[in-house]
UniProtKB/TrEMBL annotation:
E.C. code: 1.1.1.23
Pfam families attached to this UniProt entry: Histidinol_dh
Function summary: Catalyzes the sequential NAD-dependent oxidations of L-histidinol to L-histidinaldehyde and then to L-histidine.
Gene that produces this protein: hisD
Origin species: Leucobacter chromiiresistens
Molecular-function annotations in GO: histidinol dehydrogenase activity; NAD binding; zinc ion binding
Protein name: Histidinol dehydrogenase
Length: 439
């Protein structure tokens, strides 16, 4: 990992972001690459999906809609320990997600003037679980439990077809689908899946959805940006990032293991350490060097950690570390310092925040009870992680009685006249003209 020494330097946000750039394929470049793929699915439907499966997943002649029997049959091949772990994940995430459903609130402004705020779930959602370099049953659960907690009535799932599973999605994805009770599953990957959800593909019985969610690589994230507006999306949950703020009190082996764990996802993954201790930085570097080569995906990890998107950043103090982290807006932020809560107070922008030496990101990836589908690429500045709230729309319901409306007749007319829209005021006055009593 390269080291960037910021000690004694005060940098603007833009200058910081130039020093620690995002992944090689920028969101803008990826958007231009996937735009024709999305348009092709909108135009040619199934035929376009088949071409993309051949080109990107190496699969031809498969069934795009997974038969219900294949989902049920797959669960029989799930090792008991994995099934128990998936059930534990579902149960813990249900608990964690329940807090994301706001209560209906009623506000009485004056006598007879009431506003209610209710949270209405969307009707139909398309959930994406990645399946390129690895299979993501955990992402199936993260999507499904959030949607089910919100009360969404119709859920469809897509994940890439696998050449070595007869063109079905990865078996582990089907295990998770079965355990979550999802019956509508498609073997479709990448931008094609996102486009299929957004536009619908009647030939295969896929009806367009209202909201598309789920994580994926840079092309999946870009496709979500392209279809957003036509459908709702969660965040652009793209290529994984971890930023660790640590001081000399942290354990170098813990921090190194966490940086490596997220680099395992993708050659383009970003692992960043920000520390005020040069000695600690060196020890982490040594730990990374001694551990990285023995991981299963050593080549991918090495590429991610040696890329420009990964770095060790030396700063003067932890307040500056928080400023650097805020400028970056990481998907995952770990804080391992003498005063984690103090550092947390300075943090504004991050997808999810993991405090202390015993809360690794990989816990959040699987079993913490929090959701692992999180904003990347700096979008944590304005977006949140996936949750039940992603599928809920606040709706205001307004009811005024006669006297409460009458009280507002004059000020309302003043505002309507100020805007040059007097018929708005007339609509109120009409209710108080003689003979118009009594609704
Ligand atoms: N932010 C989050 O919440 C989060 C959570 C989990 C995983 N992730 C990320 O998800 C990603 C998973 O990626 P993956 O590749 O394993 O699976 P994936 O399912 O996201 O991507 C595979 C698909 O990418 C498409 N694709 C591949 N090469 C392409 C190209 N050159 N042009 C256009 N499309 C192409 C294909 O359609 C293929 O089916 C990783 O980057 C990981 O870091 C993010
Ligand atoms: N770290 C990923 C989010 O970027 C989530 C994940 C799923 N499985 C393992 N990890
Ligand atoms: Zn992970």
């Amino acid at each position: 990992m390269r080291t960037i020494d910021l000690r004694g330097r005060a940098l603007s946000r833009d200058a910081l972001l130039k020093l620690v750039p995002r992944a090689a394929v920028s969101a803008e470049v990826a958007v231009e690459r996937v735009r024709p793929l999305v348009a092709d699915v909108a135009e040619r439907g199934e035929a376009a999906l088949r071409d993309q499966a051949r080109d990107f997943d190496g699969v031809t002649g498969h069934r795009l809609r997974v038969p219900a029997e294949s989902i049920a049959a797959a669960l029989e091949t799930c090792p008991p320990e994995v099934e128990a772990a998936l059930r534990a994940l579902i149960a813990r995430l249900r608990q964690g997600s329940a807090a994301q459903v706001p209560e209906e609130r009623v506000t009485h402004l004056t006598d007879g003037a009431v506003i209610r705020q209710r949270w209405q779930p969307v009707g139909r959602v398309g959930l994406y679980a990645p399946g390129g370099k690895a299979a993501y049953p955990s992402s199936v659960v993260m999507n499904a439990v959030a949607a089910q907690t919100a009360g969404v009535p119709a859920l469809a799932l897509a994940s890439p077809a696998q050449a070595d599973n007869a063109g079905l999605p990865h078996p582990a994805v089907l295990w998770a689908a079965a355990l979550c009770g999802i019956t509508e599953v498609y073997a479709i990957g990448g931008a094609g899946a996102i486009a299929a959800f957004a536009h619908g593909v009647p030939e295969i019985g896929l009806e367009a959805v209202d909201v598309v969610t789920g994580p994926g690589n840079v092309f999946v994230a870009a496709a979500k940006r392209v279809v957003s507006g036509l459908v709702g999306i969660d965040s652009e949950a793209g290529t994984t990032e971890i930023l660790v703020i640590a001081d000399g009190s942290a354990h170098p082996a813990f921090v190194a293991a966490d940086l490596i764990s997220q680099a395992e996802h993708d050659e383009a993954a970003a692992s960043v350490l920000v520390t005020d201790s040069e000695e600690f930085a060196l020890r982490v570097e040594q730990e990374v060097a001694s551990r990285a080569a023995s991981t299963r995906h050593a080549e991918r990890v090495a590429e991610a950690l040696s890329g420009p998107q990964s770095a060790i950043v030396l700063v003067d103090d932890l307040r500056t570390a928080a400023l650097v982290s805020n400028a970056y807006g990481p998907e995952h932020l770990e804080i391992q310092t003498r005063d984690d809560e103090g550092v947390l107070r300075d943090i504004t922008d991050a997808g999810a925040i993991f405090l202390g030496g015993y809360t690794p990101v990989s816990l959040g990836d699987y079993l913490a009870g929090s959701n692992h589908v999180l904003p990347t690429g700096g979008t944590a500045r304005f977006a949140s992680g996936l949750g039940a709230h992603t599928f809920l729309r606040p709706q205001q319901i307004i009811r005024y009685e006669r006297d409460a409306l009458r009280e507002l007749e004059r000020p309302l007319r003043a505002l309507a006249e100020a805007e040059g829209l007097p018929a708005h005021a007339d609509a109120v006055t009409a209710r108080f003209e003689a003979g118009k009593e009594g609704l």
